[in-house]
Amino acid sequence: MPIFEYVCGECNHRFELLVYGSTQVACPKCHTTKLEKQISSFGVGGTDGWVLPGSGGGACGSCGDPRGPGSCSTN
Prior knowledge:
The protein is 0% helix and 19% strand. By secondary structure, the protein is mostly beta strands.
């Protein structure tokens, strides 16, 4: 289920849409099907607050328990 970006040819509304199979795509504002598919690239958000397993950052590396490593029944 890819996400596509479009620009409406009638009202110039820019939007993204999760497209399922044979979904008929229309502008959510004016409901026209005169759309231009945009070149889309994925973005990677920042990692602020992320903790990598084994880095000693707090959450359990096995299950994510916020009490820390060894505090869950997985370990």
